[in-house]
Amino acid sequence: MAVPRHKHTRSSVGQRRMHIFITPVSLATCKKCSKPIRPHSICKHCGYYKDKEFINVLGKLTKKEKKIREKEIKDTQKDQKLGGGMSMEELSKK
Ligand SMILES: [Zn+2]
């Protein structure tokens, strides 16, 4: 079995390990439903990418699930519209 030749001090071990870490995932927000998504990828919640539908999200759902999902999307769109209006007003005030 290989045996280490010298003792590794806590300091040198720490210096080696300071570069070992997991970087947080960078997230963008979906333009349609404003959910956090990976950049340059289709939104899994609404199936849209660059204002175009690529996945029919509601297709495989049952009637009940469909209703709930449609409501969610509508609510988020309303919130987005309200939020956008508010921010524009705030900007004009400033
Ligand atoms: Zn979306």
Assembly status: single chain
Number of helices: 2
Poorly predicted ranges: none
General form: elongated
Main sheet record: 2 strands, antiparallel
User: Structural class given helices, strands, pairing?
Assistant: mainly alpha
The strand order across the widest sheet is 1-2
The share of residues in extended strands comes to: 5-15%
Provide the gyration radius in Å: 24 Å
Q: Overall mean pLDDT score? A: 82
Percentage of residues in helical conformation: 40-55%
Order of H and E elements? HEEEEH
Terminal Cα span: 70 Å
| Count of individual domains | 1
Give every kind of bound small molecule, once each.
Answer: zinc ion
Q: In total, how many beta strands?
A: 4
Structure write-up:
The protein is mainly alpha-helical. It has one domain (25-93). It has two helices and four strands. The strands form two sheets. The protein has a two-stranded antiparallel ribbon with strand order 1-2. The chain has a two-stranded antiparallel ribbon with strand order 3-4. Bound molecules: zinc ion. Zinc ion binds at residues 30, 32-33, 35, 43, 45-46, 48. The site of zinc ion has 8 residues, from loops.
Provide a quick synopsis of the model.
With 94 residues, the protein is mostly helical. The protein has helices at 10-17, 63-93; strands at 28-29, 36-37, 48-49, 52-53.
Give the helices and strands, then pairings.
Blueprint: H1 10-17, E1 28-29, E2 36-37, E3 48-49, E4 52-53, H2 63-93
Antiparallel strand pairs: 1-2, 3-4
The protein binds zinc ion (ZN).
Zinc ion binds at residues 30, 32-33, 35, 43, 45-46, 48.
